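Q: Predict the bound structure with cytidine-5'-triphosphate.
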Amino acid sequence: MPLAGKNIILGISGGIAAYKMPLLVRLLKKAGANIQVIMTPAAHDFVTPVTLATLSGRPVLTDFIQNKEGLWHNHVALAQWADLMLLAPVTANTLAKMAHGQADNFLLAVYMSAKSPVMVAPAMDVDMYAHPATRQNLQQLQAYGIHLIPATKGELASGLTGYGRLEEPENIYKHILDFFKQKNSLSGKKVLITAGPTYEAIDPVRFIGNHSSGKMGIALAEEAAKRGASVVLVLGPTHLRPANPDIKVLPVTNAEEMFAGVTEHFGTADMAVMAAAVADFTPEKPAEHKIKKGQASLSIPLKPTKDILAYLGTQKKRHQILAGFAMETENETENALAKLKRKNLDLIVLNSLREPQAGFKHDTNKVTIFVKDGRQIDLPLKSKKAVAEDIWSVMESLKTD
Ligand code: CTP
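A: Predicted complex:
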């Protein structure tokens, strides 16, 4: 039984697609999971609690107090019980409340207390799903680290056709199986990641930097943590932070500090991915005071920074897996393969500069992964989160001695 002993909360809100949830409960129960169904009051109009209670083997919860004795259901204890909380179907209304922290029913109070990962599978009419407010709420929830099972395209209850259909229960079930399969694949492993740009001081107010936002490295850190790794993220200057509080963030400013942070942790790491866009040069001697204008021209002497990734390549033990990134403007494959070899890496991720939606600052990326064993994996344009999943799957496939 693939889900034996897993505790899953299924939160149902009030949409037509709620009628499909008994099927999902059956699939999950058959796989060995313990299911606690929570419904919003509106959901009762679409599917009966009696069916869900019978199939799940537990009373369905809707209110904080649900019996004559006035027994209060403890939303915090319930939230802690769960290994996964799934909200399906989730309506535009419940999504909005989740995105804004409104807890005016029992389901939302449990959600806001959840210690476990949370998944949402939205279902609503096509225009509601496409509405900018819904788009923004979904984006916000994803930024909180919530897994989205996107609505699919098809005929909707209104008679309209388009995106807004709840993903089929069989596919939601597959998402859940994948989630638990991946969940512990890195447990017991220590993972070290760099992300973001570095700022090299010219004087007290100016620096040499680059356009990196840190999104790719942060997505890698989130994914590794989701798979159970203990994660240290050495993060250059960016306002972004991982949503998962278990990720240990070490903020740094320049290449030298990044080198120090990385070398402090590499000895005990099992896997390391250097995703930061580290400056290759830094001012030889930053000016002590702000450089004034008034001179005809200005030259700033630069010296090379230490190549952190190349250094780790020289220190790497047989059990450690090391990955880097490459950004090339010409002879991409040759250069990436040369870098893989020169820096003694197990894999290198080549960022495509030809794709307008890929690279710096975007939420999507298009990469090719080159593995030491000769594999070349060309991936289509996808979200940085999905790219991170692929990178970890390849990392996990590598054998260490
Ligand atoms: N990198 C690093 N430390 C540096 C420079 C780069 O750890 N001082 C890492 C990056 O995090 C990335 C990889 O090296 O994983 C590739 O960086 P890139 O700038 O593409 O390559 P370089 O090694 O700098 O080579 P070149 O500039 O010749 O392309």
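A: Residues 169-183 form the longest helix (15 residues).
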